[in-house]
What we know:
The protein is α/β, with parallel strands linked by helices. It has one domain (12-381). The chain contains 12 helices and 10 strands. It starts with 11 loop residues before the first helix and ends with a strand. 46% of the residues are buried. Residues 1-37 have low confidence and may be disordered.
Amino acid sequence: MKTLRRLTLLSILVFAQVACNTTDHSSDKKASDSAKAKVVAPQMPVDASWTAFARYIAGMHDANNDSLEKTEFWKMHAAKTDLRWRLLTQNVGQPISTWVNEKKYLPSTAPKTLLYPFAGGDFYYANLFYTNRDTVIMIGLEPTGSRFQPDSIDATKMEDYLTTLDRCMFFPHKLGFFRTLSMDDDFAHDLMNGTLHTFMFYLARNGFSIHYVDYFDVDTNGKRVAVEAGADPKGLRIGYSKAGDKQVRELVYFSKDISNTGNKKDPSVLAYLKQRGSVVSFFKAASYLMYKDYFSDITNVVLGQSKIILQDDSGMPMSAMQNGGFTTEVLGEYTKTIGLFSNYFQKDMRAEYEAKKPAKLPFTIGYNAEFGECNLQLGTKK
């Protein structure tokens, strides 16, 4: 079962310090900042070290990695990754991108912040379904993770890391979703110790350069604060851009339990989300958690702040969107759920599918990929 998974920019002077910092957990020296701050790309240069790291683990050439790229195991990793990425793009990425461009569910007035709860390290689908967002906020139970210096790692251990990374990056796409237990095993690796690694891989493979990586915590008012010494950081921010971007984009990740119980114990992330303002939201293979009363906190935030919601049936009941002031559209096919979640089958939504007979989607994602079918529901705030 896929369970609940284990986020804003620095001033120029602070970034200059972070960009040169080679420690695993750099921290923000300011007590708080504006959640909606934007940074124009020319004012924040690419961090060559972080970009080289991302490209190395993604099996892509970078001039700063010339000596590292001479090993036979990296050459094999690069060749294998090139082939698998081409196949993934052909079979999954391109069909989704084409559908998104044709569907045009993101008007120019749509909020530029994407909220993706229960995401883990899944930047891949967030970037496909919600292109050109300024900020992507993702939440999971997975740890943030830390970087290592590839040239200081024993060759055997480095080869094992790349093998683990390869499995984590590509196997889930065969299933249509990321398996929490598999990710727990992968992130137990000495080197691959959190979502940082999946983010770096996907960012590099999608043609992005890295501007900064910053670890932070959040106080009860939702403001960013420095990471306390010896503490595991709650938040991770990555600044990224590609050629043609007019500003640095930001990926924000929270390692946090956002059940009502988790929010009662620590309301910081919920407070952060509430001050973000309008967002667009995405749910995929979300374990039907928002069907449950004890996830009402995050459900209310999504319904209250979202202008657009795109989800499969594992997000929230379609009736919840309708009762929350959204017009809804059913997409793809919806005939069943996998046995593990059969008690969450929506008979009323099935009836709407039967009445409207929407076209089959040109891709399969989510739990029902094993049946060769895919469903999505699009909610637009009235």
